[in-house]
Amino acid sequence: MTDIGEGWQVARRRKGTSKKYTSHQVSPDSKCLKEHLDVGQFIKRIKNIMSDLRFEEFCKEWQEQLLVAASTSPLKTAENSNAEDRKDQVCHQLQCVCYGLGSFTTCVSARYQLAMLLMLLEARQIPLLDCSVYDPVFSCGERDVLKELGLNVLTGNEEGKHLVTKPTLFYMMHCGKALYNNLLWRNWSAQSLSQVLIIGNTFSGMRERSIEREFKQDYRYISEAVDLCEEKQLPCPSSLIDVFSDTALITFPSSSLSRLPQSSWVDSPEPQYQHCPDLEIILRESQS
């Protein structure tokens, strides 16, 4: 891979610093930094990273894994359509939501994660405007870059509570557990979860690194989802361990969802996190 100025070696030194979300609110001033940013030049930098990634075998495997997962989503396709027609239909029907990308103008890892996102959208023929992106830490310049790339930049903090209405890929690299838990809660039904695909940290890894009792109490939906989902570990080269480590493609097979008792779907209170002092999420400003 090409060394992109200051970035490449820094990404390798920051092992273990993957958390991007902290439990605090962001003031309007801090959300809109007055930095000088050459949008065109920065887009060129992102595309240079994409050019490097095109030659990486692990990137090709990510793309193939996504195609296979999307092809098994509950999409309505004509029975008499051929395989290529079904593949095209899947690609065009799949939407995308990206949470927690981070400040990609200052963080090398975030730049690579953005480049990978664009590669996946391109490979799976997902229109850029069908990909919604949000992070409370985005500066005005970063939002301009994303808009210029063609992505849909959300203006409100959903806290991960995005309800799916069609098969949707959630790109959530190294996000806090609360964000994943909120997403699961909002889509806590067999019909909705079967349409959710996640590229992010493994739920099984979250469970292994947590105290079982606290994990079940504070992150109930992740705790239950561990036994409902299918996690396919995505490859990560050693040179990018801090960028793409512990990443999997997570899906929810209908066969697993159907085994859960109906009572599990009915009793699904919204997470409150009252006993989580280290909550890794940026809350909406309207909350106290």
From TrEMBL:
**Superkingdom of source:** Eukaryota
Organism, as annotated: Menidia menidia (Atlantic silverside)
Which intervals hold domain SRR1-like? Answer: 92-250
Q: Could you say which protein family the record assigns here?
A: Belongs to the SRR1 family.
Q: Which InterPro entries match?
A: SRR1-like, SRR1L
**Gene Ontology cellular component terms for the protein in this record:** cytoplasm; nucleus
What name goes with this protein? (Atlantic silverside) hypothetical protein
Q: Pfam families given for it?
A: SRR1
The beginning of the lineage is: Eukaryota, Metazoa, Chordata, Craniata, Vertebrata
